[in-house]
Amino acid sequence: MTKSLYAIGGGQMVEAIIRASLESQAISAETTHVVDISPDRVRYLAETYHVTTSREFQPELLKNADLILLGVRPQDDWAEIARQIGSSGQKKPLISIIAGVTIEQLEDALEVADYPVARIIPNTLTDTGFGVSGAALNASANQEDIDEFLKSFGKVDYIPEEQIDIYTGYAIAGPNYVYNFFLALTNAGVLGGLSRKQANEIALENLQGAAKMLEITGKHPYELLDINNSAGGVGITAQHELDASNFAAGVQNAVLAAIHRTTELGKGE
Question: Which residues bind NADP(+) (predicted)?
Fold first, then answer.
């Protein structure tokens, strides 16, 4: 069912969510309102997506919304915005994408008992239909109220809030690790003598195909490697070099560093 949406903050992530949700018809332009302080931004969003926009938050308009999307920056006065949402008299589900702001902090700022709150870490692959968003709900939130909307811009994993930082460093930053691998692989192809165009096309085909093999076979990567790596052959020779390098540790250390940095940012460090 199409939901009406009131979005506070019109930055890149909110735009990506709205774009994907409009495309999947989880929301409609006619019943979507976006607030942003930038005149250029509200003009752009209105002209591009034909949604209603304004530069000031108007709590009285929340009565027309099924969902409230809070997408301001952590350094903005989100607590005052939440207080106004709470005092509006409308207990519409509040979906927050503010990095580092916990459900407890939002509940305290709302100053209303039993207000439904969802804290999500939205994936960055919204335009593709791939990627996974992590969503944590408080005791008053109903998954059914937000599920269709969240799934309109990718898959959703409902998780305990203590996993949010892990999700950010691993799942949400995940495309970055793939981009880096793609770049390293294509550079290797060029180093070996292929054109950049050839290397890019082959690497993309292999990435998509390998992911599909993992999906449709359900096999462990080691099993698929065994299929490709014949005794004394090309594959096992390449495998030996990878095993002797810091490839695996580099990826693992990058993920752990990203998780650690997420936790630091949540503490304002």
Answer: 8-13
